[in-house]
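Form 7-S
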Amino acid sequence: MAKRLFVGGLPYSVNDSQLKDMFSAIGAVASATVITDRMTGQSKGFGFVEMEKDEDADTAIQKLNGTEIDGRKIAVNEARPRPEGSDRSFGPRRDFGGGDRRKSYGGSDRRGGGHRSGRY
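Output:
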């Protein structure tokens, strides 16, 4: 199984292939992905690299952590595992907790709320 590494502090100009090339000098890379904003497509300045061998991943951490790329110091360390049952959607939440809508306007009765119409 490949060891997954987190790479932070990347210059925004770095793309997937450049990230892969950087780590390929140390060992075989299974995958390299720069995380981008869904709306703009711009890099978020971090990514993930999967090294095929654990020894190569450990060597990459030792050699590349703290190095400078285009004036930025990068951080390379082992990625934390994803939490169990985590979905990868970052869209709007659909669970708003239900409950009485009037309470969100500052009161539980019609007279004490902060809503101007007095309905809530």
